[in-house]
Amino acid sequence: MNVQENFNKFIKDSKRVLKVAKKPDGAEYRELAKISVLGVAVIGVVGFVIVLLGSLIGL
């Protein structure tokens, strides 16, 4: 395949994805936001614990 054929296939596939995709409703958006905030909080707590343990053992 040449570049033009690859580009045309990409455009065709992108159009197909956009036809199938839907905008999330309010409840779905809130659930996704909660999960994201929870993930960021967990990563923050893990990082804090690592720094705290490092300072306690003198690193």
UniProtKB/TrEMBL annotation:
- Molecular functions (GO terms): protein transmembrane transporter activity
Q: Does the keyword Glycoprotein apply?
A: no
**Entry membrane topology:** Single-pass membrane protein
Q: Where in the cell is it found?
A: Cell membrane; Endomembrane system
Q: Which GO terms describe its biological process?
A: intracellular protein transmembrane transport; protein secretion; protein targeting
The highest taxon in the source lineage is Archaea
One family name in Pfam for this protein: SecE
The UniProt entry's coiled-coil ranges are: none
Q: Does the keyword Ubl conjugation apply?
A: no
Task: Tell me, in one coarse class, where this protein mainly resides.
Answer: membrane
Q: Keyword annotations for this protein?
A: Cell membrane, Membrane, Protein transport, Translocation, Transmembrane, Transmembrane helix, Transport
Membrane-spanning intervals of the chain = 32-57
Q: Which InterPro entries match?
A: Prot_translocase_SecE_dom_sf, Translocase_Sec61-g, Translocase_SecE/Sec61-g
GO CC terms on record? endomembrane system; plasma membrane
The task this protein performs is described as:
Essential subunit of the Sec protein translocation channel SecYEG. Clamps together the 2 halves of SecY. May contact the channel plug during translocation.
HAMAP family hit by this protein = SecE
Q: How does it assemble?
A: Component of the Sec protein translocase complex. Heterotrimer consisting of SecY (alpha), SecG (beta) and SecE (gamma) subunits. The heterotrimers can form oligomers, although 1 heterotrimer is thought to be able to translocate proteins. Interacts with the ribosome. May interact with SecDF, and other proteins may be involved.
Protein family according to the UniProt entry: Belongs to the SecE/SEC61-gamma family.
| Protein's recorded name | Protein translocase subunit SecE
